[in-house]
Amino acid sequence: MIAHVHVDAPVITIDRPFDYEVPEQFEALIEPGMRVSVPFGSRRLLGIVVGTSDGTRDGLKPLEALLDEESSLTDELLALSIHVKETTLCFRSSALLAMLPAALKVSYDKEIKEGHVPDGVRLGTHLSEYPKEVQSVILGLAKKGELILAPVLKEKKTVKTDVVVELLDATVVPKRAKKQLEAVDLLKETPRMYWSALRQIGLTRPQLQKLADLGAVRLTEVELNRDPYATIEQVEESVQLNDSQASAVLAIQEAEAGETLLVHGVTGSGKTEVYLESIGQVIDEGKQAILLVPEISLTPMMVKRFKRRFGDRVAVLHSALSKGEKYDEWRKIKRNEVDVVVGARSAIFAPLDRLGLIILDEEHETTYKQEENPRYHARDVAIWRARYHGCPVVLGSATPSLESYARAQKGVYRYLHLKERYGGEMPPVHIIDMRRELAKGNTTMFSEELFQGILDRIEKKEQCVILLNRRGFTTFVMCRDCGEGMTCPHCAVNLTYHQYGDRLKCHYCGYEVGMPSTCPSCNSKKIKQFGSGTQKIETELLNRIPEARIIRMDQDTTSRKGSHEQLLRRFEEGEADILLGTQMIAKGLDFPNVTLVGVLAADATLGMPDFRATERTFQLVTQVAGRAGRGKLPGEAFVQTYNPDHYVIETASEHDYETFFAKEMGLRQVGNHPPYWFLTLVTFSAKNPLVAKAEAELFASDFLQAHVENSRLNGPMPAPLSKLKNAYRYQVFIKTKQPDTLYAELARLQQARAKAISKKEYQMSIDVNPYVFM
Ligand code: ADP
Ligand code: ZN
Ligand code: ZN
C-alpha cells in the first residue's frame, strides 16, 4: 500500500504529495486526513495523508508512525484545502495545517491511559517507548475502543497565575533602590498593576518581594486564563421577534442550498436575536452551526448570549484558552458533541459534519482575512463549505462591506433589511466642527458640547463611551531641535513609544530599545513623544473632572490575555462612568446604560493612503455611534471633526448607508478599484534592493507577455514599507475581471520561480484581495 503525504515544509518545490510505503501493520489503520511522521531527507517531518492507493513501488521509504487513531481532517476539509490553495495561491500544506488546532501542528506522543493493555505494556507509559510492532497493536486496540490514549503535548505549561501589585506607601522605599523606585513611580500613575507588566521594566521577583516586605505594596496572587464563560448558566428565554426579524428568520430557514444572505440591520436592530433563533431551528433539525465573530475577546456579551441560550452545546474557540484547552474544545467538535461553534476566523475550519448554517457577524471586519499564509478570507471559505453541505451562509452587518452590498444589489446574495432599532430610535448624531472650537480658543481635545454632555451623564449616573480614532498614527518620538525621528534599524518605520518600561518598539520586527534621554544625532535634550494617546486624554479628563471614573482600553491596558473581558465586565457592572479607548471599543458592545458616545478625531483615518480609508471611517463612526441608547434610555452621539462637510462624516451621522454606498461606488468605478475589479498584490523582497527590484521587473514583463485576458498590471514600485526585517520590498498590483484565469497564470509564474525562491535568493508573496498595502 502507498500513502500520499503532504509534508510540513513550506517550500514551494515540495508542495506536492510524496509517496511512502505503508508498513503492513498500519494498512488497516491508515486513513486520509491522518497525521503521520515520515522520513524526509535527513529529517523526520510531520505529514498529512491525503490519499492511499494499493500496490507498491521500488525504492519507496516506509512511513514511520501514525500520529492519530482517526483522521484529524475530514474528506471535506481535505478537498477544501485544494480550493484554498487555488484561490489564495498558498501551499497546500499551509492550507492543511491552518485547519488543525495549534496543538496538532507538532508531532506529539501519547499516554496509554486506560483499558486493556497487551502483555508487556503498562498503563501510564508513552506510545513511543515501545517497538513499532507493539505500537500498531496499541493503535489498533485504541481504534476498536478497547484502550484509551491521551495525547501528550510537547507544550510548555502555560503560566496560569499572575500577581496583582497594589501601591500602599511610596515613601518607605529607600532612595538607593533605583528599580523599586521606578516601579513605584509607575504605580503612582496606575495604582494596581500586574507583576507581568511591572517585570517589563526589569524589576526582579526578589526586588518586588522586598517592596512588599517594606510595606510599600501589597501582593495578591490571581488566577488567569480561566474559561471566561464557565459560570454562565443556560436559561430558557423566549423572545417575541418583531416582523422584520421574523421574516429574516423565515428567509434563512427557507434559503436554498448554498445560498448567501446579507442581513443588513442597523445597530441594535436585533441581528443577534435573528442568529439565535435561526441557529435554534437548525439544531432542532439535528444539524449544526458555526458563528464567526471578528475577535472573540472583544465580543464577550455576544458569546454570553450564545452560552445562555445553548449551554454546553456551544464550543467557544476562545483566544484566551491555552493550546491544550483549545485542543480539548476541538476534540469535542470533532466527536460531534456540540451543535454550535463560536469563534474567530479560524473557527471556519471547525470539523463539523452536519453543518446546517454558517453566520459571519460584522462581516465587513477585515480580521476575517488572514494576513499571513494561507491568506484566506473566512467569508469565501464559508461559502465553499455551505455549498458542500447544501446549507446557507448569513453575512450580518450594520455597515456591510461594499463588496457584499454590491453583490446583494446584483442578486448574487439575498438581501434582508432590518431598518429599525428594536423598540427604539437611532441616536441623533451631532457633528462638531473642531475648527470652530479652535477659533473660539478651545485647544483641548474636547469640544464644549461634548464636555458638557459628559458632565451631564456623570451627574445622571449614566455612562459614556469615548473613542479616540487613532489607527494610522501611533505615539512616535522625534527631536524638536534637529527633527530626527527614532526609526527601526531593520525596517523603514518609526518606533512606537511604550509607557511600560519607557521603551521604544518596532511593531513589525519586535526590535526594542530604551527611550533615549538625548537625541542620538544632535545630543539635544528636546527629544519627545508625539501623537495623542488615550493616556493623555485620560489625564485631561481627570484634570477637569476629578471624580470621573474612567476605564481605559488600549494596547497598554489590554496586552494581557483576558484583560479585554475584565475591563468590559467592570464597565458593564457600572464600576466606571466612561469607557475610553481606541478602535477596539467600536465593536459589538451592548451596554443599556450608555447614553452618550463621543468620537475624537473622526477624520483621522480619512487621510490614509488606502482606497478603503473612506469605507473604514464610515464603518467606524456608524458602529461607535450605534453604541448609544441601546437600552430604554435615549442616547446621542458627538462626532468631532475638522472635515464636517465630508460625505463620509455626513452620511455616517445620518445613518445613511445607501447614500454613502452610491457615492463610494462612483469613486471606486472611476478609480478602477474593487468591487469593480479583483485586486491582487504581489510583493518581492530581498536583502539586496537591486535583486528585489530586478525580480519584480522580470515578473512584470513575464506577466505582460502572458496576455492574461481582462487583466492589468501596475508597477513595480517600492512598497510603502520599503524595508522590513532588513529586506527591501517592491510591489506589483494586478487588477482583473477574470480571477480564475489570473490565479492559474499566477500559479504558473510562481512555480517557475520555485527554485530561486527555495534557495532564498528572494521572496515573492501573493496577496489575493488584499486589505493591507504596506
Ligand atoms: P444587533 O445585533 O443588531 O446590534 P441586538 O440583537 O444586540 O442587535 O439587539 C439589541 C437589543 O435589543 C438587545 O439588548 C436585545 O436583547 C434587544 N432585542 C432585540 N430584539 C428583541 C426581541 N425580539 N425581543 C426582545 N428584545 C430584543
Ligand atoms: Zn536632535
Ligand atoms: Zn523593525
Automatic annotation (TrEMBL):
Record has Metal-binding as a keyword: yes
Every Helicase ATP-binding domain range: 252-418
Lineage: superkingdom: Bacteria
Primary enzyme class: isomerase
Organism: Exiguobacterium sp. (strain ATCC BAA-1283 / AT1b)
Gene designation per UniProt: priA
Keywords of this entry: ATP-binding, DNA replication, DNA-binding, Helicase, Hydrolase, Isomerase, Metal-binding, Nucleotide-binding, Primosome, Zinc
One Gene Ontology molecular-function label: ATP binding
Homology family: Belongs to the helicase family. PriA subfamily.
Name this protein carries in UniProt: Replication restart protein PriA
Binding site for Zn(2+) 2: C488, C491, C506, C509
Cofactor: Zn(2+)
Known EC number: 5.6.2.4
